[in-house]
Amino acid sequence: MKNYITLLFCLTSLSLLAQPVITNGDNFPTDGFTSPVSLGALPGGVGGPGENLTWDFSSLSLTEMGTQYYVDASTTPFIDSWPDANACFKIVTPLGSAFFYWVNSATKFEQLATGITSGPGSGSDYSPNMTTILVFPFTYGTSVADTYKKVGYSVDNVLVTYDAYGTLIMPYATYENVVRVKYEYDDGSDYAFWSVNPLLPLMTYNYEENSVTAFGVEIVTGINETITDDVAVYPNPASDILNITLNSGTAMFSLYNASGAMVGNQQLVNGVNAINTSTYPQGIYFFNIQGENTFKYGSIAIE
């Protein structure tokens, strides 16, 4: 049995150097960050290890399956079954929601439970012996051997290696300073590609099916953290009008529904910008605001 890491995300702190270094797990997206999730096939694999590589997957055919939402683990419906979890995201598809629980500590980042749809017995439960996903610090060329145990299975082994970094070209975006980690099992290897800002998964590769899971994350080069002081979004909930105050420059506002589809966008200028929300159905929406020196994301309710 192998640890099937199809949906993997990065909880790290990396420096914007030629060789990114994973220093800790402090820079994790806040509750409300979202990105589309798509599936595809990559029969040729992801290539070998190395420095300053370019992975050109611009022609990769992807099918959108749903949306990834980062959530506060303590507010999720199954936290009582995995009380040690302090990091979580969920994947929402037309078939329902699946939760992924993790433990983030000062020395490592571990997988606790994945694909949980209805509590214990659903998905994969690694609570007997969690899987190490990252160690801190983690530099290029470092390998860490680990054992893990899934409920109902025997103990297995995996070798976790930071084996490459470089530029990842996807059909919808190009990402620089990408870190690749290899998960080596007895019969093959999975891979995960991580962005540096924000610190999120961009793509994972599963060797058994030659399949990829791609996360359509928007990256703002040169912004080390989400900037909130320059932007105000109100009221929340909104009914007819959503106001966005931009203190400097210009930015683009994008609005997504609960399925991850973009339902609106508008150019923002310095000052108060009024967004007409009267035509949108009631529900929870997610937004991001991106400009030269501005990056803000979050969720709003439309009534």
Put the structure in a nutshell.
The chain has two domains: 34-215; 231-302, Immunoglobulin-like, CATH 2.60.40. Helices cover 0% and strands 51% of the residues.
Task: Tell me the series of helices and strands, N- to C-terminal.
Answer: EEEEEEEEEEEEEEEEEEEEE
What is the overall shape?
globular
SS-derived structural category: mainly beta
- Rg, please? 19 Å
Which strand-content bin applies to the residues? Answer: over 45%
Look at the structure and give the mean pLDDT: 83
**Unreliable runs:** 1-17, 220-228
The main sheet comes to: 14 strands, mixed
> What is the count of structural domains?
2
Instruction: Work out the helicity level.
Output: under 10%
Tally of extended strands?
21
Number of helices: 0
Give the CA-CA distance, first to last residue.
Answer: 48 Å
